[in-house]
Amino acid sequence: MDDLNRALEQIGSIRRQVARSTEFRGYGPATLAATGVFAIAAAGVQARSLPGAASRIPAYLGIWITTAVLSATLIGVHTYLRARRVHSGMADEMLRIAVEQFLPSAAAGSLITFVLVHDAPAAMWMLPGLWQVTFSLGVFSSCRFLPRPMAAAGVWYLLTGLFCLSLADARAFSPWAMGIPYGAGQLLVAGILLFNKREAGDER
Questions:
Q1: In this structure, are residues 190 and 36 in contact, taking their beta carbons and an 8 Å threshold?
Q2: CB-CB contact of 50 with 63 (8 Å)
Q3: Whole-model pTM?
Q4: pLDDT tens figures, 43-72
Q5: Candidate from 53-57, 171-175, 194-198 with smallest mean pLDDT
Q6: Cα Rg of the chain (Å, integer)
């Protein structure tokens, strides 16, 4: 029985090593592009229904947190189904690694939001920029698991986040301070995944 347990542990270790060295193909380009469209649509909703967002923070948060939850749910469901189809027996391990890569940045963004809302409302103008910076860290963390050009998306989110922070006032609450970074950023991610998919197909 001890020999069997050791053999199973070794097999599990080998599977984890293989999973960590395999490119994750669970993210679908169309799904990521759809989340970019969500961001642009949310910016449009804010522009039409929420002028002066700096003085209406709960409504502002409602728009963008709802958009984030919808996007995360769509990506999560589709990624789970796609990974099971693409990675087959390795799907569980690949999904676990994918979550591990991005979860810290998502948790950091959530905690930053809570702290600013609860303890530092005067600094709320920093929130859009901080969201983008923490998102960029999640992208960078995932890069070793994704196509190498994905680093460009991380750079995009980092630069747009820093730009929002440089505004240093209520201009950071402009709908397009979120709509353009996330809309263009997710479309960039989708384009990289699509190009990589086609390149892999050409190689085969």
A1: yes
A2: yes
A3: 0.87
A4: 999 999 999 899 999 999 999 999 999 999
A5: 194-198
A6: 19
Please report, in angstroms and rounded to a whole number, the separation of the first and last CA atoms in the chain.
43
Q: What is the dihedral of CA 61, 179, 197, 150, to 10 degrees?
A: -80
Burial of 151 (0-12, 13-18, 19+ CB in 10 A): middle
The dihedral built from the CA positions of residue 46, 51, 55 and 58, taken in this order, carries a sign that is negative
User: How far is 30 from 193, CA to CA, in rounded Å?
Assistant: 9
Dump the DSSP string for the chain. Answer: -HHHHHHHHHHHHHHHHHHHTS----S-HHHHHHHHHHHHHHHHHHHHH-SSGGG-HHHHHHHHHHHHHHHHHHHHHHHHHHHHHHTGGGHHHHHHHHHHHHHHHHHHHHHHHHHHHHH-GGGGGGHHHHHHHHHHHHHHHHGGGS-GGGHHHHHHHHHHHHHHHHH-SGGGGSTHHHHHHHHHHHHHHHHHHHHHHHHHHHH-
Task: Tokens for 104, please give them.
Answer: 């810290």
